[in-house]
Structures are given as C-alpha cells and as structure tokens.
Task: structure prediction
Amino acid sequence: MLRNAVALVVLAGSVALAAQTASADSFTIDLTHPTPTFKPMDGDPMKPDLNQPWLDSKPIPSFGQQVVLSYSHFPTNQGYFDLGLMVLSEHHGTHMDTSAHYVNTAETQDPANPTADKRKLLHMLDGNDLIGRVVLIDISGRVQAELDKNGGRPSPDTSVTDFSDASGNVVTAEDIAAVADKLDNGVWLVLHQGWSRFYFQGTDFGKDPYINGFNYPGLTPAAVDKLIEIENAKDIRIGGIIADIIGVESGQNSKGEDDKWTNSWYVHVNGLQRGWKLVENATNAEQLAMAKPDSCTIVVGAPKFVRGTGGPSRVLAICEK
Result:
C-alpha cells in the first residue's frame, strides 16, 4: 500500500507531496545534504564568489564548481517576488546519475546489455525508475573500527587508516552475497558506511577528509561482480545504489591505477550500462539502520531536464514505524 501510494505521487511529479502520503504508521528520512550556494563573481555571473556565501554556505567536495545563486525582484503594489537564478553542475551535491552518464568503449560494453543510445536520460525516467524498496548494507562498524586507529579521523595514508579494496573495510563480495535473498527488480541498495560526517569538514579537494586522498570505503570491483552475478542468476535488475561517499566505488577504484583514471569507476563502467541509477553524496543512512530498513521505500526526487545525465536530487526514504 505504501509503495503504491508513493508511486502515484512521483508520477504526479511532486516529491514534496510524497512525505504527506506517510500515514500515522510511517515516517520519512531525508537522505539529502543541503547544497551550499554563493553569490556570483563580479564580472562573471557564471562563476561563484566563494567569499560571498549565502547564509552559512561553505564549499563542498565536488568535481564541478560550487553553485552560483543570484536574485532579482519582480515588484507588485503589495511587495515583490524573490526570483533566483542558479548555475550548477549536474553531478554536484547529493545527486543521481542516470544510466546515460557513462559512455562505454566498444571493449567495455557488454553485448548482452542495451546499447548507449537506449540508456535513459533524465527526462526519459518514469516514476517506477525513481522509487523502490530499500536493501541496506551496513559496514559502518568496520569503518569506525578502522577510523578508531587514528582517533576517529581518516588518513590518506593506508598504513594509518586502510580503506583499500583488499582491506575488508569496504563493501565486499561477501556483503553483497549476504543480502542476495533480498535483491529483486527495482530495489535500491543503500550503503551505510558512516562517511557522510566528513562532508562539510574541508574545502581542499586534494586534502579534504571526505575525499581523503581517494582512501575511503565503497563498492569494490569484486562486490560489483557479485551483484551482477546475482542479477543474472535471478534474472532481475536492481533500481540503483545510494552511497554516502562522493561516488559509489571505493576510493581506490574511483582513482584507478594512475592519474589518467585508468581502470577506474568500476560501478559506473559496468553498472550504469545495466540500467542502474546511482545516488552519490547521500547522508543520514544511520537513520535507516536504526529504522526497519526492509520496510522503507526510496523516493528519488530527480529533476526532469531534457538531455540531462543526472541532477541534484532530494532523496527520501519512507519507512514503517
């Protein structure tokens, strides 16, 4: 009943109303970080002036520039409308990647999967693409145990805090196998790693504790292979993956083997072509862990920009009490 109600709301195009569908027997968890905004730079309205933040904004880790927000007024005799203009990157803040975000080479395209021109752009997604039952993978205990070796803080030095693919402090193939019986068409795999606490703790991409020199947890290639193996064995496709890190992969795999991103981004290369959607930079996964995650339904409030490969999204989980 709850999932059907949410689906109708999303199809109507109003994520805000989704929360209102929650009955007395349910509650909503917001998995979305606020997105900081900045006034435009003098002489270039397309670029942010980081010395002129709106309210308490401060820069966040991102591959694109920070968000520019400028205002104009539309007056009436009783007051005026405050009208904002935004300049933002598609893949900034808490956001969703569509399957069209990554274009494979012929060598990395699985012939059993749809070709790139059949992958969905943002405006092609329907309501069923944006909702699904939660399957939670919680490795936050292992992550915290590793952080405790350094007083609770991550270090880019793997000899201090190790989140390499072989460390076991990441999402492993065994973690995927442990939830195999819960995987089905359209479910959203949510990774709780306890990493979102570092999101606003730095402004230098190279030294930021959230990026941590690309030494952070996430899905390993072996975990992705196990997920694909289960999908093929059960003849299913999950809806997507939500992670509390800047990507979905582990930091080691995100960076790849060199500064040219060689053999990097394994989930993007292999999962997006299967139709998975990816939500990155999520937060509050610990609230899901404390709820009854199997009772929760994900609602991804993605924008509907024509030709978009992704976009900042309001991500909600509606759970039973």
In short: Confidence is low (pLDDT under 50) at residues 1-20. The chain has two domains: 2-35+89-320, 37-87. The first strand starts at residue 26 and ends at 30. The two ends are 14 Å apart (CA to CA).
